[in-house]
Amino acid sequence: MFHVFMPCLGANLKIGIPENYDGIFPWYLSKLPSLTTNYSELLIRGDDEGIFGVDAAFLYALKPLDREKQPSYSLQMMYRMAGQRQSFTVEVCVIDKNDNVPTFSAVSMRGSVQLGLLKGIPFMRVEASDRDDRNTAHAELRFLLMDQTPRIPAAHMFAIDSIQGEVSLTEDGASTLDPEMCGRYKLLVMVKDMAGKANAFFSTGTVTVEVTGNTWASPDPVRLQENLPGPYPIPISQSVAKFCGPADEQLQLRENNPFLCRTATELPPPELPDCRGSFGGSPEEEAWRTPNAAEASAAFRQLRTGSSAAVRQLSSRSTIPFSSMLRFMDFR
Ligand SMILES: [Ca+2]
Ligand SMILES: [Ca+2]
Protein backbone atom coordinates (compact mmCIF):
# COMPACT_ATOMS: atom_id res chain seq x y z
CA MET A 1 0.00 0.00 0.00
CA PHE A 2 1.32 3.44 -0.92
CA HIS A 3 1.04 6.61 1.18
CA VAL A 4 2.73 9.96 0.65
CA PHE A 5 3.72 11.86 3.81
CA MET A 6 4.87 15.42 3.57
CA PRO A 7 8.63 15.72 3.95
CA CYS A 8 10.10 18.72 5.70
CA LEU A 9 12.53 20.64 3.54
CA GLY A 10 16.11 21.06 4.64
CA ALA A 11 19.48 19.43 4.41
CA ASN A 12 17.94 16.25 5.79
CA LEU A 13 14.51 14.77 5.51
CA LYS A 14 11.95 14.86 8.29
CA ILE A 15 8.67 13.01 8.03
CA GLY A 16 5.77 12.40 10.37
CA ILE A 17 4.33 8.89 10.41
CA PRO A 18 1.21 7.94 12.40
CA GLU A 19 1.52 5.10 14.85
CA ASN A 20 -0.49 1.88 14.78
CA TYR A 21 -0.78 1.47 11.02
CA ASP A 22 -2.80 -1.68 10.36
CA GLY A 23 -2.67 -1.87 6.57
CA ILE A 24 -0.55 -3.83 4.15
CA PHE A 25 3.22 -4.11 4.52
CA PRO A 26 5.67 -3.08 3.30
CA TRP A 27 4.26 0.33 4.02
CA TYR A 28 5.77 2.92 1.73
CA LEU A 29 6.38 6.13 3.64
CA SER A 30 8.24 8.69 1.57
CA LYS A 31 10.35 9.19 -1.51
CA LEU A 32 13.96 9.97 -0.69
CA PRO A 33 14.87 12.82 -3.04
CA SER A 34 18.59 12.46 -2.38
CA LEU A 35 18.62 9.02 -3.92
CA THR A 36 18.72 8.60 -7.65
CA THR A 37 18.38 5.35 -9.47
CA ASN A 38 22.10 4.75 -9.72
CA TYR A 39 22.88 4.54 -6.01
CA SER A 40 24.29 1.33 -4.53
CA GLU A 41 25.42 -0.27 -1.26
CA LEU A 42 22.66 1.42 0.75
CA LEU A 43 23.03 0.98 4.50
CA ILE A 44 20.54 2.24 7.12
CA ARG A 45 21.81 3.05 10.61
CA GLY A 46 19.58 3.89 13.56
CA ASP A 47 17.13 1.09 12.88
CA ASP A 48 17.99 -1.51 15.48
CA GLU A 49 14.73 -3.36 15.07
CA GLY A 50 14.96 -3.63 11.30
CA ILE A 51 11.73 -1.73 10.75
CA PHE A 52 12.77 0.40 7.77
CA GLY A 53 13.98 -0.34 4.27
CA VAL A 54 14.43 1.40 0.94
CA ASP A 55 13.00 0.23 -2.35
CA ALA A 56 13.46 2.24 -5.55
CA ALA A 57 14.34 5.37 -3.54
CA PHE A 58 11.25 4.99 -1.34
CA LEU A 59 11.49 4.55 2.41
CA TYR A 60 9.17 1.85 3.70
CA ALA A 61 8.31 0.25 7.05
CA LEU A 62 7.83 -3.43 7.67
CA LYS A 63 5.73 -3.12 10.81
CA PRO A 64 3.64 -0.53 12.63
CA LEU A 65 5.25 2.13 14.80
CA ASP A 66 4.45 2.67 18.48
CA ARG A 67 4.95 6.27 19.64
CA GLU A 68 4.82 5.26 23.29
CA LYS A 69 7.65 2.81 22.65
CA GLN A 70 9.78 5.08 20.46
CA PRO A 71 8.57 8.56 19.47
CA SER A 72 11.16 9.20 16.76
CA TYR A 73 13.87 7.60 14.66
CA SER A 74 16.98 9.19 13.24
CA LEU A 75 17.93 7.11 10.23
CA GLN A 76 21.30 7.61 8.66
CA MET A 77 21.16 6.61 5.01
CA MET A 78 24.64 5.70 3.77
CA TYR A 79 25.16 4.81 0.12
CA ARG A 80 27.56 4.95 -2.78
CA MET A 81 26.90 7.08 -5.81
CA ALA A 82 29.24 7.75 -8.72
CA GLY A 83 31.97 5.96 -6.80
CA GLN A 84 31.61 8.24 -3.72
CA ARG A 85 30.33 7.35 -0.25
CA GLN A 86 27.52 9.71 0.68
CA SER A 87 24.92 9.96 3.43
CA PHE A 88 21.94 11.89 4.67
CA THR A 89 19.58 11.65 7.64
CA VAL A 90 15.88 10.92 7.70
CA GLU A 91 14.08 11.95 10.88
CA VAL A 92 10.95 9.89 11.38
CA CYS A 93 8.57 11.44 13.94
CA VAL A 94 5.85 9.09 15.09
CA ILE A 95 2.51 10.91 15.23
CA ASP A 96 0.44 10.09 18.27
CA LYS A 97 -2.92 8.36 18.26
CA ASN A 98 -5.12 8.12 21.31
CA ASP A 99 -4.48 4.50 22.17
CA ASN A 100 -3.93 4.69 25.92
CA VAL A 101 -6.48 4.87 28.69
CA PRO A 102 -5.72 7.35 31.49
CA THR A 103 -5.25 5.68 34.85
CA PHE A 104 -5.06 6.87 38.43
CA SER A 105 -1.73 6.58 40.20
CA ALA A 106 -3.47 4.11 42.50
CA VAL A 107 -6.84 2.43 42.13
CA SER A 108 -7.51 3.11 45.79
CA MET A 109 -6.50 6.48 47.22
CA ARG A 110 -6.78 7.91 50.72
CA GLY A 111 -7.11 11.34 52.21
CA SER A 112 -8.34 13.05 55.32
CA VAL A 113 -10.39 16.15 55.86
CA GLN A 114 -10.49 18.15 59.04
CA LEU A 115 -13.63 19.47 60.57
CA GLY A 116 -13.76 23.22 60.07
CA LEU A 117 -12.17 23.23 56.63
CA LEU A 118 -13.71 25.86 54.43
CA LYS A 119 -15.37 25.03 51.14
CA GLY A 120 -13.15 24.92 48.11
CA ILE A 121 -9.90 24.46 50.04
CA PRO A 122 -8.21 21.31 48.73
CA PHE A 123 -7.33 18.68 51.31
CA MET A 124 -5.95 16.11 48.88
CA ARG A 125 -5.24 15.59 45.23
CA VAL A 126 -5.77 12.60 43.00
CA GLU A 127 -3.21 11.96 40.30
CA ALA A 128 -3.49 10.15 37.02
CA SER A 129 -1.36 9.59 33.95
CA ASP A 130 -1.84 8.83 30.29
CA ARG A 131 0.96 7.43 28.16
CA ASP A 132 -0.16 9.29 25.06
CA ASP A 133 1.45 12.51 23.87
CA ARG A 134 0.96 15.10 26.62
CA ASN A 135 1.10 17.86 24.02
CA THR A 136 -2.13 16.62 22.52
CA ALA A 137 -5.68 16.17 23.77
CA HIS A 138 -4.95 12.43 23.88
CA ALA A 139 -3.42 12.99 27.31
CA GLU A 140 -5.39 16.08 28.37
CA LEU A 141 -7.04 14.78 31.50
CA ARG A 142 -10.18 15.77 33.33
CA PHE A 143 -11.38 14.53 36.70
CA LEU A 144 -14.94 13.89 37.76
CA LEU A 145 -16.53 12.93 41.05
CA MET A 146 -19.08 10.24 40.26
CA ASP A 147 -20.43 9.14 43.60
CA GLN A 148 -20.18 9.58 47.34
CA THR A 149 -20.92 6.89 49.91
CA PRO A 150 -22.68 7.40 52.24
CA ARG A 151 -24.67 10.41 51.16
CA ILE A 152 -24.99 11.85 54.65
CA PRO A 153 -25.51 14.42 56.01
CA ALA A 154 -25.62 15.78 52.44
CA ALA A 155 -25.51 14.06 49.07
CA HIS A 156 -22.73 16.23 47.69
CA MET A 157 -20.18 16.85 50.41
CA PHE A 158 -17.14 16.88 48.15
CA ALA A 159 -15.98 18.44 44.92
CA ILE A 160 -13.05 17.72 42.66
CA ASP A 161 -11.20 20.22 40.51
CA SER A 162 -11.63 18.86 37.02
CA ILE A 163 -8.15 19.88 35.87
CA GLN A 164 -5.96 19.72 38.98
CA GLY A 165 -7.68 16.76 40.65
CA GLU A 166 -7.80 18.58 43.97
CA VAL A 167 -10.53 17.38 46.31
CA SER A 168 -12.29 19.86 48.55
CA LEU A 169 -15.50 20.33 50.47
CA THR A 170 -18.60 21.77 48.88
CA GLU A 171 -20.60 24.38 50.72
CA ASP A 172 -22.85 21.59 52.00
CA GLY A 173 -19.79 19.60 53.03
CA ALA A 174 -18.14 22.47 54.89
CA SER A 175 -21.32 23.31 56.77
CA THR A 176 -22.48 19.79 57.64
CA LEU A 177 -19.31 17.73 58.02
CA ASP A 178 -19.61 15.79 61.25
CA PRO A 179 -17.15 13.02 62.16
CA GLU A 180 -19.59 11.63 64.71
CA MET A 181 -22.27 11.19 62.09
CA CYS A 182 -19.92 9.90 59.41
CA GLY A 183 -16.18 9.47 59.90
CA ARG A 184 -15.36 7.93 56.54
CA TYR A 185 -16.52 8.50 52.98
CA LYS A 186 -15.84 6.61 49.82
CA LEU A 187 -15.70 8.63 46.65
CA LEU A 188 -15.87 7.17 43.18
CA VAL A 189 -13.72 9.31 40.89
CA MET A 190 -13.19 9.15 37.15
CA VAL A 191 -10.42 10.39 34.90
CA LYS A 192 -10.99 11.00 31.20
CA ASP A 193 -8.64 11.98 28.40
CA MET A 194 -9.53 14.14 25.36
CA ALA A 195 -10.26 16.95 27.84
CA GLY A 196 -13.29 15.00 28.99
CA LYS A 197 -15.07 14.95 25.64
CA ALA A 198 -17.56 12.30 24.71
CA ASN A 199 -15.05 10.21 22.74
CA ALA A 200 -12.61 10.06 25.63
CA PHE A 201 -11.12 7.00 27.25
CA PHE A 202 -11.70 6.84 30.97
CA SER A 203 -11.03 4.83 34.11
CA THR A 204 -12.22 5.03 37.67
CA GLY A 205 -10.73 4.92 41.14
CA THR A 206 -11.88 5.16 44.72
CA VAL A 207 -10.92 7.69 47.33
CA THR A 208 -11.37 6.96 51.01
CA VAL A 209 -11.73 10.16 53.00
CA GLU A 210 -11.32 10.07 56.75
CA VAL A 211 -12.99 12.86 58.69
CA THR A 212 -11.01 14.15 61.64
CA GLY A 213 -11.93 16.56 64.38
CA ASN A 214 -10.87 20.16 64.36
CA THR A 215 -7.51 20.39 66.13
CA TRP A 216 -7.57 24.15 66.10
CA ALA A 217 -7.56 25.30 69.69
CA SER A 218 -9.79 28.31 69.99
CA PRO A 219 -7.99 31.23 71.57
CA ASP A 220 -9.67 33.80 73.71
CA PRO A 221 -12.04 36.25 72.03
CA VAL A 222 -10.55 39.40 70.59
CA ARG A 223 -11.75 42.46 72.49
CA LEU A 224 -11.95 45.77 70.75
CA GLN A 225 -12.64 49.22 72.07
CA GLU A 226 -15.18 51.08 70.01
CA ASN A 227 -14.34 54.33 68.22
CA LEU A 228 -10.65 53.61 68.12
CA PRO A 229 -8.75 56.54 66.62
CA GLY A 230 -6.71 55.82 63.52
CA PRO A 231 -4.61 55.53 61.59
CA TYR A 232 -5.86 52.25 60.26
CA PRO A 233 -5.24 49.41 59.92
CA ILE A 234 -4.71 48.80 63.60
CA PRO A 235 -3.29 45.45 64.74
CA ILE A 236 -5.76 43.78 67.06
CA SER A 237 -4.60 40.24 67.46
CA GLN A 238 -1.90 37.81 66.61
CA SER A 239 -1.74 34.08 66.64
CA VAL A 240 0.68 31.34 65.81
CA ALA A 241 0.05 28.62 63.31
CA LYS A 242 2.21 26.02 61.68
CA PHE A 243 2.20 26.15 57.93
CA CYS A 244 3.47 23.59 55.51
CA GLY A 245 3.23 25.94 52.56
CA PRO A 246 2.75 29.61 51.83
CA ALA A 247 0.84 31.04 54.79
CA ASP A 248 -1.27 33.38 52.71
CA GLU A 249 -2.63 30.39 50.76
CA GLN A 250 -3.67 28.57 53.91
CA LEU A 251 -4.95 31.43 56.01
CA GLN A 252 -8.58 32.05 55.28
CA LEU A 253 -10.55 35.02 56.53
CA ARG A 254 -14.23 34.65 56.19
CA GLU A 255 -15.93 37.10 53.90
CA ASN A 256 -18.04 40.09 54.83
CA ASN A 257 -16.31 41.24 57.97
CA PRO A 258 -14.28 44.35 58.80
CA PHE A 259 -11.01 42.50 59.32
CA LEU A 260 -8.09 41.58 57.21
CA CYS A 261 -5.09 39.36 57.74
CA ARG A 262 -1.46 39.86 57.05
CA THR A 263 1.35 37.41 57.28
CA ALA A 264 4.50 37.90 59.31
CA THR A 265 6.47 39.12 56.33
CA GLU A 266 4.09 42.08 56.07
CA LEU A 267 4.15 43.03 59.71
CA PRO A 268 5.30 46.45 60.84
CA PRO A 269 7.70 46.82 63.79
CA PRO A 270 6.49 44.81 66.80
CA GLU A 271 5.12 47.73 68.86
CA LEU A 272 1.40 47.11 68.95
CA PRO A 273 -1.23 49.41 70.47
CA ASP A 274 -3.10 48.54 73.63
CA CYS A 275 -6.17 47.40 71.79
CA ARG A 276 -4.40 44.27 70.65
CA GLY A 277 -5.27 41.01 72.33
CA SER A 278 -2.22 38.82 72.12
CA PHE A 279 -2.30 35.06 72.15
CA GLY A 280 1.37 34.86 72.97
CA GLY A 281 4.26 33.38 71.10
CA SER A 282 5.98 34.72 68.05
CA PRO A 283 3.49 36.18 65.58
CA GLU A 284 3.27 34.47 62.24
CA GLU A 285 0.24 36.39 61.12
CA GLU A 286 -1.98 39.09 62.49
CA ALA A 287 -5.56 40.02 62.16
CA TRP A 288 -6.09 43.66 61.43
CA ARG A 289 -9.08 45.85 61.62
CA THR A 290 -9.47 48.23 58.77
CA PRO A 291 -11.91 51.02 57.92
CA ASN A 292 -11.28 50.33 54.27
CA ALA A 293 -13.89 47.63 54.20
CA ALA A 294 -17.20 49.27 53.34
CA GLU A 295 -18.95 47.37 56.07
CA ALA A 296 -16.55 48.56 58.72
CA SER A 297 -16.81 52.17 57.62
CA ALA A 298 -20.57 51.99 57.81
CA ALA A 299 -20.42 50.52 61.27
CA PHE A 300 -18.16 53.28 62.53
CA ARG A 301 -20.32 56.00 61.12
CA GLN A 302 -23.37 54.48 62.72
CA LEU A 303 -21.60 54.09 66.02
CA ARG A 304 -20.82 57.75 66.16
CA THR A 305 -24.49 58.52 65.71
CA GLY A 306 -25.40 56.13 68.49
CA SER A 307 -27.08 53.41 66.45
CA SER A 308 -27.71 50.57 68.87
CA ALA A 309 -28.02 48.10 66.01
CA ALA A 310 -24.58 49.06 64.78
CA VAL A 311 -23.22 48.85 68.31
CA ARG A 312 -24.51 45.32 68.59
CA GLN A 313 -23.10 44.54 65.17
CA LEU A 314 -19.65 45.79 65.97
CA SER A 315 -19.80 44.42 69.47
CA SER A 316 -20.57 40.94 68.23
CA ARG A 317 -17.89 41.20 65.59
CA SER A 318 -15.30 42.52 67.98
CA THR A 319 -15.79 39.67 70.41
CA ILE A 320 -16.25 36.95 67.87
CA PRO A 321 -13.88 34.08 68.64
CA PHE A 322 -10.78 34.36 66.59
CA SER A 323 -11.10 30.76 65.46
CA SER A 324 -14.41 31.46 63.81
CA MET A 325 -12.83 34.16 61.69
CA LEU A 326 -9.74 32.24 60.79
CA ARG A 327 -9.11 28.69 59.82
CA PHE A 328 -5.64 27.37 59.65
CA MET A 329 -5.32 24.56 57.21
CA ASP A 330 -2.78 22.10 58.44
CA PHE A 331 -1.72 19.64 55.75
CA ARG A 332 0.74 17.70 57.82
CA1 LIG B 1 -5.13 8.76 26.02
CA1 LIG C 1 -0.47 6.96 21.56
Describe the structure.
The chain has 332 residues and is mainly beta. The chain has three domains: 83 residues, Cadherins (Immunoglobulin-like, Sandwich); 110 residues, Sandwich (Immunoglobulin-like), CATH 2.60.40; 95 residues, no CATH class. Helices cover 11% and strands 36% of the residues. It has five helices and 22 strands. The strands form seven sheets. A four-stranded mixed beta sheet has the order 1-7-6-3, with no helix packed on it. Strands 9-16-15-12 form a four-stranded mixed beta sheet, with no helix packed on it. The C terminus is likely disordered. Bound molecules: calcium ion (CA) (2 copies).
| Percentage of β-strand residues | 35-45%
How many E strands? 22
Structural class: mainly beta
* SS summary, helix count: 5
Using the coordinates shown, work out and report the CATH topology of the largest domain: Immunoglobulin-like
| Count of domain modules | 3
In spatial order, strands of the major sheet run 1-7-6-3
Cα Rg: 33 Å
- Average pLDDT number: 76
CATH C-level name of the largest domain: Mainly Beta
Main sheet attributes: strand count, strand direction, barrel closure:
4 strands, mixed
